[in-house]
Here is the input.
Amino acid sequence: MARLEYLKNVVTLNLDAGKCIGCGRCTEVCPHGVFAIEDRKARIIDRDLCMECGACQMNCPVDAISVGKGVGCAQAVLTGALRGTEPNCDCSKNCCGS
Amino acid sequence: MSRTTKENSFITHNGRRIPKVPTELCWADKFGGWKARWAIGRMKYSVEPGIYAIGSPAENSPVFVSANYKMSFDHLRSRLVGRDGWILVLDTKGINVWCAAGKGTFGTEELVNRIGAVGLGELVKHRTLIVPQLGAPGVSAHKVKQQTGFSVVYGPVRAEDLPAFLDAGMRATEEMRRVTFPLKDRVVLIPVELVTGAKYVLAVAAFFFLLAGLYPGGYSAALAVSHGMQSVLILLVGYLAAVVLGPALLPWLPGRWFSVKGLWIGLAVLLLGGLLVGRRMELLDDRFSMAAWVLIVPALTTFVVLNFTGASTYTSLSGVKREVKIAVPVQLICAVLGIGFWLVGCFV
Here is the structure.
């Protein structure tokens, strides 16, 4: 079974290697293995696997990572577009999945 | 509104009474979980935030952090069989860990506040928290350490890996840190997608049913029923095919875009429908009806599968934005054109 991958060349993930201290938090929290530590620095090994969950950005102690965090949910994008706001799941009414 | 889980037992620790929860799930727990998967009572399925004991915890027992969605809580405690520990439940408004982390409710602020609220520092001697890895989008480990003195260790993605994780000295393998989307996990989402989409499908069906009575002579209720039934059947088959096969066959449907994956399902429905019953329903004779369904069915199936992005585990917001920007206008145009042809077909 092919590994599930979404669109290519679209994510807003950015790693500033200059700021990186090689703590490894990004590798600890990323659910898709986007990062690896090589030579005591983090490196993006497959940016198309990124789902922009923001875990890496949230846990980088030196703010070396930036990403446009958001939920990859079509309903959220459409609801936001209809209301003129940012993508919004409106979890109070309906939350998908578990 | 929240419900407590068998909170009729307590332990006493350092002079405090802490509710104790079993690691075995009872029938009511499992039934509640099943119902939640069918969107029954899902938005009110929570436990009271606070601190709970598992087994016979002492001041050096590990602290696990959970959301207050009862399914998350049950899932965690059922994997700690035979262990002693504390479960710190955050108020995530009854939402599961990953979604709540994305929204920020399973977050730094709530975790820091909850630690203070339950007096965790007095309960345990150590200063370590085991936070589920999927809580990371909301929790800043270094900020939690700064504000509470507690160090965050991210536990495995799946609670079932906790025993191995703990036995290895709180160390996770690469697999434990990866979210996959296997068949089992995709299929379990079908009921809730089906139930939450049902009201829209019924509304659309009603619309077609009512309009189906139109004919050159005016309006006929009998025609509404017969012609309407036909239309509703096609819509239902298309909807069910998309909502079941989209998730089930996701990796095998060609294309990265979810709408493209949905297109194959739509084409299959048209082909099979046309071959099997098209002749019987005299649909193939009516070119306007045919044109209508050729437009409407794919618009429907591509839209339904596109909506599965929200329940998937790997789509990025940027990617979804790109897909929606292009796919939805196309779906809208096809749907409007299709309905147009269908209406013309009523009068011809």
Observations:
- Residues 212 and 227 of chain B are 6 Å apart (CA to CA).
- Chain B touches chain A through 61 residues (CB under 8 Å).
- The longest strand of chain B covers residues 50-54.
